[in-house]
TrEMBL record:
Limits of the EAL domain: 497-754
Transmembrane segment boundaries: 37-57
Name of the protein described by the UniProt record: EAL domain-containing protein
Keywords: Membrane, Transmembrane, Transmembrane helix
Residue intervals of the GGDEF domain: 354-488
The UniProt record lists the keyword Cell wall biogenesis/degradation: no
SMART domains linked: EAL (SM00052), GGDEF (SM00267), PAS (SM00091)
Pfam families assigned to the protein according to its UniProt record, in alphabetical order: EAL, GGDEF, PAS_3, PAS_9
InterPro entries: Biofilm_reg_signaling, EAL_dom, EAL_sf, GGDEF_dom, Nucleotide_cyclase, PAS, PAS-like_dom_sf, PAS_fold_3
Record has Transmembrane as a keyword: yes
Domain PAS: 197-242
Length: 776
C-alpha cells in the first residue's frame, strides 16, 4: 500500500511537471509589448516556481505521511506480535544503568513500562544478578553474538519469575562504545517447569528399583533404565534399537509373547508375570506391567514396560507351596495334599462308579527306632520306608506321609475290595526284606495296615482316613505286621481303646496293678529255679484286663515306662521278701521288658535302682525280651545287652522261634536264656515227627551248643514235659507245673517244692522228674 501510495504520488508528481512545463509555451505565442511580455514571463515564472514549491511541499508532506503511516504500521505489527507472543520489550542504558521493561499491549496508551536502576531498585533477582552482568560483559566483549540470559525478574504481581532475555546493542557512543542494548524477554516459567518435570521423570526412571524399558510401536527398545540393565545384564547400548524379543525366554512358547503384544496393542495395557532371559542365559521371572503411551502429535504409540524381578519371591512361594503340600523328609505328599487328592479321587470314583481304597500304614515299633538309634537314623528309616512303599504301590498312585511313621496309599479305579487287600499283602511282603539305609546299614521294620473303602465305608475324605486309621489300630492289636479292613465294630473298639489308654496313664498312682508269678522248674531235678513275674491290671472301671490287651496300649501311649519301672521294683521287692521267708537265694525272678523300656537309655538305671532298693544281687534278676525287639534293633540291642551283662543281670529271649532270627546271629548277643514259644511246645509229639517237634529239638540242640539255657513255655501236658526232658531242655514253665500265682501262693509253692526236693535228694540222690513235681 505504501508502495502504491508512493507510485501514485509519483504519477501525480509526473503529470504536474508535465502540466507546468507547457505554461510558458502558451504565453510566448501572444502580441504583448516587451515590458509586459517580460513581466508576464516573470509572473509566470514566479507562478511556476510557487506552484512547483507547493507541489514539492505537498509531495514531501505526503511522503512523510506515508512514511509515518508505514512506520506506525510496522510498529503496530511489532507491538501486536510482542503482545501476542507474550514477550516483553526491554532496553538497558549502560550509562545510566537504567533498565526499562515494557509489557506491550495492543493499545500503546496502556503499555506497562517499568523503569529501574539496576543498583538501587533491581528488577533482577539478587542471586542471578552477577550471572546476568557476566553475560552482559561477555556480550560487550564480543564473546557472544547476542546477549542471552535466563534469570529471575520481578513479575507484574511482584513475584519472581524466570525470564529468557535476548538482546543486541542498539545505540553506540561517538567513540563506538555500546550505550544501549534492547531486546525481548519471554516468561519461561512454564517451560522451566516442564523441563524440570522432564528432568525429574528422567531421574526417577534412572533411580527406579523397577526395571523400566520404553519400546516403540514395533516393540523395539527406545530406552531402558539402569535397573533394567541390572536385572537383565543388557546395557542400554546393547538393546536400544533391538526387538524386545531379545529377552524372551523359552519358558513361554512364542505364542505367549505374541499374545502379550496383541493385548497391549488392542487394550492399551497388559499385566502379568513373564519369564525373561538374561544376557548370560539365565532366566528371571518378572511381575510386569506394560502400558501404551500416546505421544502428543506422534502417530505411533510408545510402550512402557515396568518390571519387578520376582524370581526369588516365586521360588519362596513355590517352596511354601511345596512345604504346604509335601513332606520335606520323604518328598511324599502330606496330609493336606492327600485330602485334596482324596476328594478328587472320590469325585472321580463316584462319576465312574468305581471303588477306591485308602490304605493306612503305620510302622511297627518305630518309636523304638528313634529312641534307640536316634532321630537321624529314624529319618533314614522313614525315607527308605517311604520309597519302599511307593515302589510297591506304584509311582502313579498317591502315597502320602500323614504324620511321624504313618503313611497312606490311595488306590483308585478298583473293581473289587480284594484288590486293596492284595496290595496291602504285597506291601507287607515287601517290608520283610530289610530297608537299605546306606551301603553298610540295613534295617528291618514291619508295617501294620488298615484299609477303608469308598463307597462301602465312607463317602468323604476325613471319614475314609479315620476308618483306615481305625483298621490300622486293629491290625496292630492283632499282633502287628498285618492288614485289616475296616468294620463297623472297630469304631466301638476304638472308643474302648481310648478309654483304656486314658485309664492306663494313671494306673500306677492308683495302685491298680499287681504281679502274679509263674514258677519255672528245672527238668533235671525238679527244683524251682526261677519265677516269671506277670502283670495284672484290676481296673475299677474296666474290670480285670489281660496283659496282652493292655500292654500293647501302654506301649503305644508310653505308659509302659512307669508301669515297667513299677514291675521291676515290685518283682525285686517280692523276691527279697521271699528270700527273707526262706526261699533259696538261687531263685531268680524274670521280668518282661517291652521294646520301649529296653530302648530307653535309663533302663540300666531303673534296674540298678530296683536291685539296690531290694538288696538283691544282679544275678537274682533276668530280663525277658522278645526276639523281635532284639532283631529289629540288633546294633543297639547288642550295646544295651552288654551293659546288663557287665552288671550281672541275665537276659532271656522270649517267644523264641516266632521271629526270624538266626541262631548264629544270637550267638553274638550277650544273652543267657532262650524261651521256646508256647506255639512250638503245643505241637510237641513224643513220636517226634511233627514240624514243631523238629523245631523244638533243633532250638534246644543249638542253644546248648551256644551255651544258652533253654526254657520251654506253656507246658501243659506230661507228654510235652517228657519230650522236653528227653531233649535235655533245661527248664519248663506252664500250667502243668503251675499257673501264674499270687505272690503268697507262689511263695508257698516254692517252699513246698524246696522241701520236697530237699527230702528227696537226701533219700534218693538221682532226681526223677515225677518226684520233683510238686504235690497235687
Ligand atoms: N512288658 C511286659 N509284658 C508282660 C508283663 N506281664 C505279662 N506280660 C506279657 O503279657 C503277655 C500275656 O501274659 P499273660 O497273660 O500273663 O500270659 C502269660 C502266662 O499266663 C501264659 N502261660 C503260661 N503258661 C501257660 C500255659 O501252660 N498255657 C497257657 N495257655 N498259657 C500259659 O503265658 C504268658 C507268659 O508269656 P511269656 O511272657 O511269653 O512267658 C505275655 O506276652 C507276657 O510276656 C509285664 O510285666 N511286662
Amino acid at each position: 500500500m505504501g508502495k502504491e501510495l508512493f507510485s501514485a504520488a509519483g504519477t501525480i508528481l509526473g503529470s504536474a511537471q508535465r502540466t507546468l512545463a507547457t505554461v510558458p509555451a502558451v504565453a510566448v505565442s501572444g502580441n504583448l509589448p516587451g515590458s509586459h511580455y517580460l513581466l508576464l514571463v516573470l509572473v509566470a515564472l514566479v507562478l511556476v516556481l510557487a506552484g512547483t514549491t507547493l507541489i514539492n511541499y505537498r509531495r514531501r508532506e505526503r511522503v512523510q505521511r506515508e512514511h509515518l503511516s508505514e512506520t506506525h504500521e510496522r510498529e503496530q505489527r511489532l507491538r501486536l506480535s510482542l503482545w501476542a507472543s507474550n514477550e516483553l520489550y526491554w532496553q538497558y542504558d549502560l550509562r545510566s544503568r537504567e533498565l526499562e521493561t515494557t509489557r506491550v499491549l495492543p493499545d500503546q496508551a496502556n503499555d506497562l513500562v517499568v523503569y529501574s536502576i539496576l543498583d538501587t531498585n533491581p528488577q533482577i533477582h539478587p542471586d542471578d544478578l552477577q550471572d546476568v552482568l557476566q553475560r552482559l560483559r561477555e556480550y560487550l566483549q564480543g564473546k557472544s553474538a547476542i546477549f542471552l540470559s535466563e534469570h529471575r525478574m520481578l513479575g507484574d504481581a511482584g513475584q519472581w519469575q524466570w525470564m529468557l532475555l535476548r538482546g543486541r546493542a542498539v545505540e553506540y557512543s561517538d567513540d563506538g562504545r555500546v550505550v544501549r542494548i534492547a531486546g525481548t524477554a519471554r516468561n519461561v516459567e512454564s517451560l522451566r517447569e516442564l523441563e524440570s518435570q522432564r528432568q525429574i521423570a528422567a531421574k526417577v526412571m534412572h533411580s527406579m528399583a523397577e526395571s523400566v524399558a520404553v519400546l516403540d510401536a514395533q516393540f523395539h527398545f527406545v530406552t531402558v533404565n539402569p535397573a533394567f540393565s541390572q536385572m537383565t545384564g543388557y546395557t542400554a547400548e546393547d538393546v536400544v534399537g533391538e526387538d524386545a524379543a531379545l529377552i524372551n525366554s523359552t519358558r513361554h512358547d512364542p505364542q505367549f509373547y505374541a499374545d502379550v503384544r496383541n493385548a497391549v496393542r488392542n487394550n492399551g495395557s497388559w499385566v502379568g508375570n513373564m519369564w525373561q532371559q538374561r544376557k548370560d542365559g539365565s532366566v528371571v521371572l518378572c511381575a510386569m506391567q506394560c502400558n501404551q503411551i500416546e505421544q502428543s502429535g506422534a502417530a505411533a504409540p510408545l510402550y512402557v514396560l515396568v518390571a519387578n524381578d520376582i524370581t526369588e519371591r516365586h521360588r519362596i512361594e513355590q517352596e511354601l507351596r511345596y512345604l504346604a503340600n509335601f513332606d520335606t523328609l520323604t518328598g511324599l505328599p502330606n496330609r493336606t495334599l492327600l485330602a485334596e487328592r482324596l476328594s478328587r479321587a472320590i469325585v472321580n470314583a463316584r462319576r465312574k462308579g468305581n471303588k477306591l481304597a485308602l490304605l493306612f500304614l503305620d510302622l511297627d515299633n518305630f518309636k523304638d527306632v528313634n529312641d534307640s538309634l536316634g532321630h537321624a537314623t529314624g529319618d533314614r528309616v522313614l525315607r527308605a520306608a517311604a520309597q519302599r512303599l511307593q515302589d510297591v504301590v506304584g509311582a502313579e498312585r498317591t502315597v502320602a506321609r500323614v504324620s511321624g511313621d504313618e503313611f497312606t496309599a490311595l488306590l483308585e479305579d478298583l473293581h473289587d475290595a480284594s484288590e486293596a487287600e492284595a496290595c496291602a499283602q504285597r506291601i507287607l511282603t515287601a517290608f520283610d526284606a530289610p530297608l537299605r539305609l546306606d551301603d553298610r546299614f540295613e534295617f528291618t521294620i514291619t508295617p501294620s495296615i488298615g484299609i477303608s473303602l469308598f463307597p462301602e465305608h465312607a463317602q468323604v475324605p476325613t471319614d475314609l482316613l479315620k476308618y483306615a486309621d481305625t483298621a490300622m489300630y486293629h491290625a496292630k492289636a492283632a499282633g502287628k505286621r498285618t492288614c485289616m479292613c475296616y468294620t463297623d465294630s472297630m469304631a466301638v473298639d476304638l472308643r474302648r481303646r481310648a478309654h483304656l489308654i486314658s485309664s492306663l496313664r494313671r494306673v500306677v498312682e492308683r495302685g491298680e496293678l499287681r504281679l502274679v508269678f509263674q514258677p519255672q522248674q528245672v527238668l533235671a531235678d525238679g527244683r524251682i529255679d526261677a519265677v516269671e513275674a506277670l502283670l495284672r491290671w484290676d481296673s475299677p472301671e474296666h474290670g480285670s484286663i489281660q496283659p496282652d490287651q493292655f500292654i500293647p496300649l501302654a506301649e503305644d501311649c508310653g505308659a509302659i515306662l512307669p508301669i515297667g519301672e513299677w514291675v521291676l521294683q515290685e518283682a525285686c521287692r517280692t523276691l527279697a521278701a521271699w528270700q527273707r521267708a526262706g526261699v533259696s537265694t538261687q531263685l531268680s525272678v524274670s521280668v518282661n521288658v517291652s521294646a520301649l523300656q529296653f530302648l530307653r537309655s535309663d533302663l540300666t538305671q531303673t534296674v540298678h535302682a530296683a536291685l539296690t532298693q531290694s538288696h538283691l544281687p544282679p544275678s537274682a534278676l533276668e530280663l525277658e525280651l522278645t526276639e523281635s525287639v532284639l532283631m529289629a534293633n540288633a546294633d543297639v540291642a547288642t550295646e544295651r545287652l552288654q551293659a546288663f551283662r557287665e552288671m550281672g543281670v541275665s537276659i532271656a529271649v522270649d517267644d523264641f522261634g516266632t521271629g526270624y532270627s538266626s541262631l548264629a546271629y544270637l550267638h553274638r548277643l550277650p544273652i543267657n536264656t532262650l524261651k521256646i514259644d508256647k506255639a512250638f511246645v503245643d505241637g510237641l509229639q513224643l513220636s517226634g515227627d511233627s514240624e514243631d517237634t523238629t523245631i523244638t529239638t533243633t532250638i534246644i540242640a543249638m542253644a546248648r551248643s551256644l551255651g544258652l539255657l533253654v526254657v520251654a513255655e506253656g507246658v501243659e501236658t506230661p507228654e510235652q514235659l517228657t519230650f522236653l526232658q528227653q531233649q535235655h531242655c533245661d527248664l519248663a514253665q506252664g500250667y502243668l507245673i503251675s499257673p501264674p500265682l499270687e505272690a503268697d501262693a507262689c511263695l508257698r509253692f516254692i517252699l513246698d517244692v524246696q522241701q520236697h526236693t530237699a527230702r528227696h535228694a537226701l533219700a534218693q540222690p538221682t532226681t526223677h522228674l515225677d518226684q520233683a513235681l510238686p504235690p497235687a
